[in-house]
Amino acid sequence: MVAVIIVTGAAVRLTGSGLGCSSWPNCSPGQLTPRDATSYHAMIEFINRTFTGAVSIAVIAAVLGSFFRSPRRRDLIWLSLGLVGGVIAQIVLGGITVLTDLHPAAVMSHFLLSMLLLADAVILVERAGYPDDRRSYKPELKWERRLPLLQFIFVSVVVVAGTVATNSGPHAGDRSARRFNIVLTDIVRIHSIAAIILLITLAGILFLSSKTGVSSRRRRDRTLLLSAVVIQMTIGYVQYFTGVPALLVSLHIVGAVLVFIASLRFLIRTNRQMPMIAMSAENRVQGNEFVSNFRGTGSVL
Ligand code: HEM
């Protein structure tokens, strides 16, 4: 749901409908819905606002699920409440975006906050799959364990630079919307160089994986992430050299969401704490053996 609303939000921008509804929370002063169905931009902006309702229902379901599940887990409760905070902040920020006539900082923050919400949702889903009745052992942070974090940081840098590029270019939400005072070529150069560094990091991780013997499932996940980045970069270059047509830009946004999810899942799964049976006095010795064996296996890449 969160991933979908990021894409529908982008559709608002790409069709130039950011100011389709001139007011907030009403579409126009004194009227909640668009005045007539022929008002194309107002309808697109209104549908996007309505979709926020669907996301809110999904978030309420997540909160109820985390409160009523047995056993209740604090991490899941906090993560679901984080979604509530994110949706409320997003509604307020959406209002600020309209009321400031699509100030580029507001448009950019609106997109980035969606990515934070998406991150919260991905972590919630991943952690919900952790066993309840086990303690966990946090693996030592060796240098190679930091690589997954590094690739996620690079993905985040690429995403932030991408939003600056969008808000300096033709797709900032409306023809009349203000833009950052940055030359598009310069910011796209920074954006694409960061993507190249990300690509090299991922290729390095995959190379190390082949040396250190990880499970085929993990290697497949990494190959998929690397392939998604290659496809995303190809779309990026093609859209840039063809004058950023709206269709390719929308594909680039779908790609950005998929790369972000894959990168975060890679980070979470690599650093996932190894489950260990809660240690009683009798099985502590066994547990310590487990820890030293695990340490001994070395690489998680
Ligand atoms: C992993 C690789 C990449 C990711 C995750 C990524 C992500 C993004 C994101 C999130 C945006 C902003 C979308 C928005 O605010 O609506 C963006 C915009 C953009 N990206 Fe990328 N990007 C990648 C690679 C590239 C590459 C290699 C190029 C090549 C030049 C490129 C060109 C662009 C351009 C021109 C824009 C502005 C499009 C517009 O006018 O809206 N991207 N990218």
Summarize the structure.
With 301 residues, the chain is mainly alpha-helical. The chain is built from nine helices and two strands.
Write out key terms for the chains shown.
binds protoporphyrin IX containing FE, single chain, mainly alpha, flat, 2 strands
Describe this structure in words.
- With 301 residues, the chain is an all-alpha fold.
- The protein has helices spanning 2-14, 40-68, 74-99, 104-128, 143-166, 184-212, 216-241, 246-270, 284-296; strands at 134-137, 274-277.
- The protein has a two-stranded antiparallel ribbon.
- The radius of gyration is 22 Å and the shape is flat.
- The chain binds protoporphyrin IX containing FE (HEM).
- Protoporphyrin IX containing FE (HEM) is lined by residues 10, 111, 158-159, 162-163, 165-166, 169-171, 188, 191-192, 195, 198, 229, 232-233, 236-237, 239-240, 244, 249, 252-253, 256, 259.
List the helices and strands and how they pair.
Blueprint: H1 2-14, H2 40-68, H3 74-99, H4 104-128, E1 134-137, H5 143-166, H6 184-212, H7 216-241, H8 246-270, E2 274-277, H9 284-296
Antiparallel strand pairs: 1-2
This protein binds protoporphyrin IX containing FE.
